[in-house]
Every structure is written in structure tokens, then in C-alpha cells.
Amino acid sequence: MTTSRAGLTALVVALAAAATPLAGQDTTTTRTAASGPITLGEAIRIALAQNSSVQFARNATALDSLSVRQFRNQFLPNLSASSQSSQAFGNGSKGQNSFSASAGLSSGITLYNGGQNVNSLREAEFNLQASGRDYGRVRQTLVFTVASDFLNLITQQEQQRVQQENLVAQQEELTQLEAFAKARTHPIGDLYQQQAAVAATRLALANARNATELAKVDLIQDLRLDPRGTYTFAPPPPRDTTVPPREFNLDSLIAVAQAQRADVQAQRFRVEAAKREVLVAGGGRLPVVSANGGYSSGFNSAADGSFGSQLDQRRGGSLGLGVSVPILDRGAVSIARQRARIALENETLSLRDVEETVVLEVRRAFLAYQLAREQLTESGAQQAAAALSLEASQARYRDGVSTFVEVALARATLIQAQSAVVNARSSLAFQRALMSYYTGVLGQANARIER
Predict the structure, then answer these.
(1) CB 313 within 8 Å of CB 305
(2) What's the rounded Cα separation, in Å, for the pair 122 and 60?
(3) Residue 298 has what pLDDT?
(4) How far apart are CA 446 and CA 451, in angstroms?
(5) What pTM value is reported for the model?
(6) Closest Cα to residue 316, out of 69, 105, 28, 39?
(7) Torsion angle defined by CA atoms of residues 10, 15, 21 and 26, in that order, rounded to the nearest 10 degrees
(8) Are the C-beta atoms of residues 48 and 139 closer than 8 Å to each other?
(9) Phi, psi dihedrals of residue 94, rounded to the nearest 5°
(10) Of 9, 11, 192, 316, whose CA is between 20 and 30 Å from 111?
């Protein structure tokens, strides 16, 4: 049973001082079953490269980046070229045919439009910041999912080892009872009871193997691997058992979450974008000042002069300054402002809800972590006591001073305690990962599993 305890894995996710920058340059990774065991780091890289949710979030950020570029270009002047040509035919036999052509350039620029172009650009920039934070949060969520499923696979493997060791011990007990039955020193019913216990243990082992394979299926789905392939996952390095579980302070965790959570930051940027939308709508009441200019020339074959001289004589240009003052807009600006203010109120309410949810999530994770630590301590004590109880029961049974029922109950208690230790250590590891995820510091670079 010591091998089982030493082989138990625990997920340890370091809480970084600041969130790791999450770049979006991942490319699709092809993974084959023959490439060797998959480590946690490789699993995270594969998932980030191939997961559809990450790709959707990255594309949303790219679209918002194009919106910023579009609004920034509105500060530039436009330039257009135009040309026109015509062929005239004379009337009658003495009529004269003529050909004429003209060409010109025109340009215009908005000098002032009530700040709508400036505020529209700022709004687009805030939306880009928000989508960037959403992209980071999607990546964090995927890292957490992969790490959790990786931990679940290792946990199921540990449960399988517990049942495998139990089967070996049960078979040894069966061999001993067969010798007792042959020597007629113990009741034959004890042998039959042990045979049933061995069969039940084989069934429990089969269930544990099935659970392990199902955990592998979950990871294959996370990584979008070929479901027809066969994959192995590398066990993590041994965990330093001399290092005590980390202590957390609730107030510090809440402060970190409020500063680092990408979804909170994204919602704050959306509030700022909504404020800019209010200013954009209000700018509709202000005058619009624009400047324009043009240059043109032409040619007519019926006129005197060469082609070059006509172009020189007919060239001309213009410069203009236009001012447009809105007087009656059928209430369009007023309605737009009211809609923008309602949208701002909704975004502000969403920000309040997100901030409250973050605090509650961190508080729940903190309490669950404290409980997981206590469960690990108590389950370890239970396992040690159950092992001593089984040893004593077996000695009493061999001496003929106790029944086989006592041995069977003691063994069942030990198996239950060993399974509880596996679950408690996995729960503690999971709560640490959950703590990092809820505080917003979990990233590809600082997620690791130790065992």
C-alpha cells in the first residue's frame, strides 16, 4: 500500500504575481499515437492550438482590431479620380464630328464632427482591449480544463493501482485459506467467502480500468486528437512530500482576483466603451466642418489648339470649406443618446455582477481548499489506523481467536481509507488549481503537476 501512496499525484499550480501574457501565435499541432507519451505541458500546447473556442476568441479579437483600423482611417482625407469623354456627331452632310474628354481629382477631409470620430475610435480601442481579455480568459479556461482532466486521469490510475494491490492481497489471502481448508483448521465457509471477495475485487478492478479509459477519452476530446488512436500520458515527477500545503489569505486572494481576472478587466473596458458611445451619440447635435478640394482639365477636338495647350488652358481647381449645422433630425440624436445611456447602465450592472461573482467564487474556493486540507489529514490518519487494524485482525484470525468476518471488515475499511486518501489528495490538488483559475493567474507557463 506504500507504493500506492507514493504514486498518488497532486496538481500544484503556482500563483504568479501577475498573469502570464497569453500570445495568440499557436498553430495547429498534429499529434500521432506513435509520438510518445503526452506530458501536461504538451497537452496544454496541443489544446491551445486546436481548440475551437480559442480560435473563435482569437478571430473575434482580430475583427475588433480591424474595427480600430477602420475608425483610425476616418481621420485621413479621401482621394478620388474621375474622367468623362463624349463623341459628338454633326447633323447633315456638313456637320462636324467632335471628341471631348475631361479628368479631375477631388479630395475631402472632416475637420470636426462633434468629436464623433475621436470617440468612435476610442470606443473601438476599448472593445479591442475587452476582446483581448476575453481571449486570455478562454485560454485560461482551457488550461484549467486540460489540467483538471489530466489530474482526473492520474487519480483514476491511482484508484486502479489501489484495486490492483487489493486483488493481490485478496489472492494471497485466498491461497492461505485454501491451505487452511485443506488442513481443516478453519471453516470451509471462510474459503467460499474469500472466493466471493476475490471476484468482487476483480469487478472493482475492471470498473477502475474502465474509469481510467474514460478519463483518457476526456483528454483526447480536450486535445482534439484522433479518437481512433491509442495514446499514453506521461506521469508527472514525484512530489516533494516534505513541503506542507500552502497557506492562503482570503483578503489577498480577493485582491489578486479583482486585479488579475481577465473577465473583470474585459467588462471594465466594455463600460468605458459604452461611455464613449454616449459621447458619440451626443456629438450628433454639434456642427460638422469639412474641407474639400479638386483639380480638373479637359480637351475638345472641335476647339482650336493642340491637346497639350487645351489641357493647360482648361485646367482649374477649387478649395472649399463646408459647415453643416443640424437643426431638425426627427429626434434621432435624442433616441441614440437614450439608447447609449441604457447600454451604459447595462454594462455597469454587468460589471457589478461580475465583480461580485468573482469574490464569491474565490471565497467558495478558499473554503473548499481548507476543507480539502482537513480531509487529507483525517483520511491519512484513517488509512494508518485501518492498516494496523487489518494486521491485528489477520494475526488474531491465524491464532483462531477471531472470525473471518472481522478480517473481511478490516480489509474493506482499509480499502475504503486508501481510496479516501486518493480522493482527498486529488481534491486538494484540484482546489489549488481552482484557486489559481478563480484568481486569474492560471496560465500555460505556470500550470504543472507534481506527484
Answers:
(1) yes
(2) 18
(3) 81
(4) 16
(5) 0.78
(6) 105
(7) 0
(8) yes
(9) -95, 5
(10) 316
Residue 89 belongs to a domain: no
In a domain, residue 337? The reply is: yes
Q: Are 277 and 115 in contact (CB under 8 A)?
A: no
Number of other residues whose CB lies within 10 A of the CB of residue 272? 18
Average pLDDT, consecutive stretches of 10 residues, N- to C-terminus, the chain (451 residues) = 39 34 42 71 90 93 95 92 80 67 89 91 96 94 91 90 91 86 82 89 94 94 90 76 76 92 95 95 91 86 75 82 89 93 96 95 92 90 92 85 84 90 86 88 68 50
The CA dihedral of 428, 433, 436, 439, to the nearest 10 degrees, is -80
Distance of CA 41 to the CA centre of its chain: 15
| CB 283, CB 336: distance < 8 Å | no
- CA 294/CA 210 separation, integer angstroms: 79
Q: Which pairing describes strands 98-112 and 78-88: parallel, antiparallel, or unpaired?
A: antiparallel
In a domain, 155, yes or no: yes
Amino acid at 338: Q
Say how far residue 437 (Cα) sits from the centre of its chain.
Answer: 10
**Cα separation of 93 and 87, whole Å?**
17
- Cell 483600423 sits at which residue? 69
> Domain for residue 322, yes or no?
no
DSSP 283: G
Return the beta strands (E) in 248-334 as ranges.
288-300, 316-324
Dihedral sign from CA coordinates of 262, 265, 269, 270:
positive
Contacts of 189 (CB under 8 A, 6+ apart): 404
Cell triple for residue 450?
Answer: 507534481
As a whole number of angstroms, the distance between CA 287 and CA 337 comes to 17
Q: What is the CATH number of the domain that holds 229?
A: 1.20.1600.10
| Three-class DSSP category at 260 | helix
Distance of CA 384 to the CA centre of its chain: 41
What pLDDT was estimated at residue 16? 32
What is the C-alpha to C-alpha distance for residues 186 and 398, in angstroms, rounded to an integer? 9
User: Strands, E, within 1-147: which ranges?
Assistant: 10-13, 78-88, 98-112
> Measuring CA to CA, which residue among 283, 290, 289, 278 is closest to residue 329?
283
* 207, three cell numbers: 470498473
If you count them, how many residues does the chain have?
451
> What one-character DSSP code corresponds to residue 186?
S
**Residue 17 has what pLDDT?**
32
How many independent structural domains does the chain possess?
1
Domain, as residue range, for 180: 2-21+44-69+125-287+333-450
